[in-house]
Amino acid sequence: MIQQQIDAIESRLEFLKTDTTKWVSAFAQPNGCTPYDHGNYFRKLERNRLKTKLKSLQKKLAKN
Known about the structure:
It is a single chain. This protein is mainly α. It contains two helices and no strands. It has helices at about 1-20, 40-64. The model has no long low-confidence stretch (mean pLDDT about 85).
């Protein structure tokens, strides 16, 4: 079970390396406001969260 979670996290991390999806602010208006791409920031947050979870799962797996 733990190994399956580790594999899923590793595959998600690999996907995030190649993902280029743009996340545009909800406040971006079509009347001249330049939309800001939040995708890079959200991917960074998700990578950090997943790496932390991965480390804790690997420690759990090592104890068993």
